[in-house]
Design brief:
The structure is a single chain. By secondary structure, this protein is α+β, with helices and mostly antiparallel strands. It has a single domain, classed as Gcn5-related N-acetyltransferase (GNAT) (Aminopeptidase, 3-Layer(aba) Sandwich). 24% of the residues lie in helices and 24% in strands. Strands 1, 2, 3, 4, 5, 6, 7, 8 and 9 form a 9-stranded mixed beta sheet that branches. The N terminus is likely disordered.
């Protein structure tokens, strides 16, 4: 298995070898001039009305990866929001980023849809598994170090109040390199209908926490302690046959 040290850093020009689509919509790893500012604060957006606060950020949302892989998820955006933990990271009164964590078990994550086509270790989709997606920043804020700060404050909150054991994301190869900076590894590489290549990445909570210098909760919250908006599984969702090949890593 290739180790993290074999991959280019966030500032390496090789980050530009793939279009930056999902889950990090428009992130520019070469963005210079980042200066740390006031402390970040997190807000969990539990209702549709609260999520209106990130409408400006979400205008940058891209669906290219999911569409090219034929995952058929776009019609279920509102349902995914209701199931998910949707967050906004603020500096003072300005939202810098939004991140969404969708739990498995409802057939509404990219990895669950991919599993219908590609065999891989299903344990990463078990209890306490969350898809990291819809990570969106304004163009002027798209700097890898600032993104890592946003991830840190968000994951710290999520790990305190949810049963978190695994993280995963379906992403471009360029962005898969960034996820490796936070303790994730590539599970496999798949080719979409366009011929572009994408990766499913996965990280255990302890590995992600270590990479972000966060403590790991001693034990996950009990089911009755979890403040969640999860709903019943959505059935009959189907999967478009767009994936052409998959390579284990």
């Amino acid at each position: 298995m290739t180790t993290m040290t074999n991959f280019p850093s966030a500032r390496n020009a090789e980050w530009l070898d793939e279009p930056l689509l999902l889950p990090l919509a428009g992130l520019d790893p070469e963005h210079a001039g980042y200066v740390a500012g006031p402390s970040l604060r997190l807000r969990v957006l539990r209702t549709a009305r609260e999520r209106e606060a990130i409408a400006g950020l979400r205008r940058h949302a891209a669906f290219g990866v999911e569409q090219d892989l034929g995952l058929g998820l776009k019609p279920f955006e509102l349902t995914r929001d209701e199931l998910a933990v949707v967050t906004a990271v603020y500096r003072e009164e300005r939202p810098l980023a939004t991140l969404r964590f969708v739990p498995t078990g409802h057939g509404l994550t990219g990895a669950e849809r991919l599993q219908e086509k590609i065999a891989f270790d299903a344990s990463i989709l078990g209890e306490g598994s969350w898809e990291v997606g819809r990570v969106i920043m304004e163009p002027e804020d798209r700097h890898p170090d600032l993104l890592l700060e946003c991830l840190k404050v968000t994951l710290e909150e999520l790990m305190q109040f949810q049963d978190v054991r695994h993280f995963h994301a379906t992403t471009t190869l360029a962005m898969a390199r960034l996820w490796r900076r936070v303790g994730m590894r590539t599970v496999f590489i798949a080719t979409g209908a366009s011929g572009a290549r994408y990766a499913l990445v996965h990280g255990r909570v302890q590995d992600v926490a270590a990479a972000l210098h966060l403590p790991v909760p001693a034990c996950p919250p009990k089911p009755w302690e979890v403040a969640s908006t999860r709903r019943a599984s959505v059935v009959g969702l189907g999967l478009e046959p767009a994936i052409t090949t998959a390579l284990p890593v």
